[in-house]
Amino acid sequence: MSNADTLRQLHQDRLRQYNNQEQQAIELMGLLNKLYNEQDVQVTLFGEAIDTTSVGQVLALHQKAAIRHQDSKPIAIADTLAMVKALAASDDIRSASVDVGQLITNDSDIQQALQASSHDKSAVNGATDVVLYGFGRIGRILTRLLLSQASSAKGLQLKAIVVRPAAAGDLAKRASLLERDSIHGSFLGSVSVDDDNNGMLINGRFVQVIYANDPSDIDYTDYGIDNALIIDNTGIWKDEAGLGKHLQSKGVKKVLLTAPAGGDIKNVVYGVNNDTIGDDTIVSAASCTTNAITPTLKVINDEYGIENGHVETIHSFTNDQNLIDNYHKADRRGRSAVLNMVITSTGAAKAVGKALPELSGKLTGNAIRVPTPNVSLAILNLNLKAAPKSADALNEFMRKVANSHTWQSQIAYTDATEAVSTDFVGTKHVGIVDAQATIVTDNHATVYIWYDNEVGYSTQVLRLATQMAGISYTQIPA
Question: What is the pTM for the complete model shown?
């Protein structure tokens, strides 16, 4: 056989192999939708949701998992399909979040995992009405995340969006902003305007648009909404007096703020201090930066101890800055956001102490706004009680943490030598440790953390919203 024939045969074999993987992915996607709709079972691969709309993305996720977990048992699409088939064949599983990556790596089967997790097969999650108060960057990302999932009668149900009164044509403009995004691309779904009922039809689900100037002006029960969770992403009200206006509205049960709060309102970073929420009716999801750095700070503090440190945030510009030089009530933010690096203050370092009391008063912080529209970088300069042996040792610790079942949904890790900010657009992990930039000198460590300050943060917000709604899933493996 000639070299040309050998190469031709090799290409044909690889194509057949990939076609086979595509067919397996299609079958997998159908089973995942069935599990989600009929049994309220969510399936992840090492903490990442498996897309049920794109064959290419399903296969890409497996390839990424193989790279990320290269020191453990490799995960093939066939392995995932076999595990999900076993799940679908079991009548004993309801309202659960199943990580097939962890199960396959640990050579576990479904029945063993169910027994180990003390799974209650009678557990059933109800539906919770959700209202987005505000429809800016975070509001639209939340909408995309909520309505990109397969439709279900359980869990968080987006019922309405509240915006300020506007001129004619506002509804069409809101729909267009949701459908088209200069940073995150086109919405993978359908969006249409329902002028007669003043709302939008998004992936087949009707979402009411309500116009109001003040939270207490609205009677949500008029729109068939009751016991709702309000996610306030306007940033206008940040204390109990202001946010309490939502609770004065008929049909509202709880409020979640997508910004740092003042007073006695808890600032919560999911995965770190969400166990403190209890029966609180008003909760803050803190800031994007606080969410990005707190999980990493926690694991480093638990392992090495943090004496003190400084957090410098290289943050993408936001809508509260001017495009060109103009008056602004804040210092420096009036200067052109697209032409300047702008030094500004940040409360993120101080806010870490609210979520992680053992670090209270130990960190200082500053921010530099830079001319990029999304993805930011936090630099942790830390003085440690116990020194890592080297940067490699600290990186290896962070890699294991990122791959652990406990932290895999929040902390990610990259050692790519070519990584830049746009590589992390759309990343749902809260923070990504950049191993190439880690520095260790004696007891001093410098750690760089990338984060999509829109999508990563919004993912955390929805985790908190799920908890506040009383929606819970048995974690498998436990």
Answer: 0.92
